[in-house]
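Project outcomes to date are best conveyed with an example. Our students and postdoctoral researchers have been running inverse folding experiments weekly, and each run begins with a structure described purely in C-alpha cells. The record below, which covers 328 residues, was selected by the lab manager from last quarter's runs and is presented without edits.
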C-alpha cells in the first residue's frame, strides 16, 4: 500500500520573507526566522492508487479542485519525478484550527504534504531535502519542516535554499496569541505579493538591513531576551508592510481593527508588559509574549473592539509521520 499520514504546524515569521530571487523555485531575496505554531495542526494522508486517472484532493472533508488542486498536483508531480512512482494520488487533509480565520495554512499544508507524499512514494528524505521540496510549493512551508525556532537560509539555488532548526520547541516558552479580526479570505495572495516586492523603492533598504535584523533576532532567541526580540520583530513586520503598501500596485493587508490591536500592544509594552506584535500577509495580529504573561494578555486582547477570537499557540515540533507522535 503506497500510503502515509503526516502532520505539521504553521509558523509565524519573526523576520519575514517577502520577495523572491527566483519565483518558480521560490528562492527568497532574504533569509528569514520563524517559530512553529504548536497546537495548530494540519494532518495529511496521501495514498497513491492504481485506479486513479487524476490526483484528488479532499480538504476538511470536501472534494476540492481549482488552484488548490493544481498546487498539490505540482508537488506530487515533483515527488513522482524524484521517486519514479507513476500513480496518481488521493490527498486528504484537515486543519484542527478553524478554516477561514486567515491563518496561513499553506505552510503546514505543504510541509505535511511533502512528508506524506515522499513517504507514500517509498522515499526516506532527509530533513533538508523535505524542506527544499516543501519550499517549491509555498516558500514559508520549508520552515514548517524542522522543529521549534527555525531559520531559512535563502541560498542561491534549489540545493542551497532550505530551513534548519536553531533551537528546539522546549528552548523558550513563548506564546503566540493570534488575534483574529477578520475571517475573510485575503484579496491578494502572497504569491502575487512576492512578485510585486521589487516594485517598492523600500525593498532594497529592507533587504540591505536584513542581515542585521537576522543577527539580532537569532541572538534574542538564543539568549531568551524578550525585549530585544520584541523590538526587532515589530521593526521587521513594519518594514515588510511598508514595502507592501508602497509596491506598484500598492497592497494593504491591515484593517482598522489590525491597527487598533497594534496600538494597544505598543501601549502595553510602554507600561512594562513584555509583549509585541507581528503581522503576516493578512489582517490578523500575532501577539507574542512569554507564557507567564499569556493569561492576562489574552484577557485584555479579548476585550478589544474588533477582536473576534484568539488562537493560542506555543513553539511546535517538526513535521512528522503520524506513527511518530511527539508531545506538543
Ligand atoms: O510562503 P508564502 O508564499 O505564503 O509567503 C509568506 C509570507 C509571509 O507570511 C508574509 C512572511 C513569512 O515569512 O512567512
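After processing, the design step wrote out the following sequence:
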Amino acid at each position: 500500500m503506497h500510503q502515509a499520514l503526516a502532520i505539521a504546524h504553521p509558523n509565524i515569521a519573526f523576520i519575514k520573507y517577502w520577495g523572491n530571487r527566483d519565483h518558480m523555485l521560490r528562492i527568497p531575496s532574504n533569509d528569514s526566522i520563524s517559530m512553529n505554531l504548536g497546537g495548530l495542526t494540519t494532518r495529511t494522508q496521501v495514498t497513491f492508487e492504481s485506479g486513479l486517472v487524476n490526483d484528488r484532493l479532499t480538504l476538511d472533508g470536501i472534494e476540492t479542485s481549482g488552484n488548490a488542486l493544481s498546487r498539490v498536483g505540482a508537488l506530487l508531480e515533483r515527488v513522482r519525478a524524484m521517486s519514479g512512482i507513476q500513480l496518481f494520488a488521493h490527498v486528504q487533509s484537515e486543519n484542527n484550527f478553524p478554516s477561514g480565520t486567515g491563518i496561513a495554512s499553506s505552510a503546514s499544508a505543504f510541509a505535511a504534504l511533502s512528508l506524506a507524499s515522499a513517504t507514500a512514494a517509498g522515499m526516506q528524505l532527509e530533513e533538508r531535502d523535505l524542506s527544499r521540496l516543501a519550499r517549491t510549493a509555498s516558500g514559508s512551508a520549508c520552515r514548517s519542516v524542522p522543529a521549534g525556532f527555525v531559520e531559512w537560509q535563502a541560498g542561491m539555488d534549489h540545493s542551497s535554499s532550505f530551513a534548519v532548526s536553531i533551537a528546539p520547541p522546549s528552548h523558550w516558552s513563548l506564546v503566540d496569541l493570534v488575534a483574529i479580526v477578520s475571517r475573510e479570505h485575503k484579496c491578494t495572495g502572497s504569491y502575487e505579493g512576492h512578485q510585486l516586492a521589487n516594485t517598492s523603492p523600500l525593498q532594497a533598504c529592507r533587504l540591505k538591513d536584513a542581515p542585521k535584523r537576522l543577527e539580532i533576532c537569532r541572538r534574542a532567541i538564543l539568549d531568551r531576551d524578550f525585549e530585544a526580540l520584541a523590538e526587532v520583530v515589530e521593526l521587521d513586520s513594519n518594514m515588510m508592510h511598508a514595502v507592501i503598501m508602497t509596491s506598484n500596485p500598492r497592497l494593504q493587508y491591515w484593517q482598522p481593527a489590525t491597527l487598533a490591536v497594534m496600538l494597544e500592544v505598543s501601549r502595553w509594552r510602554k507600561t512594562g508588559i513584555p509583549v509585541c506584535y507581528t503581522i503576516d500577509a493578512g489582517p490578523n495580529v500575532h501577539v507574542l509574549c512569554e507564557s507567564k504573561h499569556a493569561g492576562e494578555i489574552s484577557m485584555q486582547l479579548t476585550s478589544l473592539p474588533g477582536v473576534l477570537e484568539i488562537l493560542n499557540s506555543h513553539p511546535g515540533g517538526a513535521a512528522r509521520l503520524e506513527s511518530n507522535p511527539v508531545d506538543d
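Residues 13, 16-18, 32, 104, 106, 138-140, 190-191, 280-281 surround PMV (CB under 6 Å). The mean pLDDT is 95. The training component of this project remains on track.
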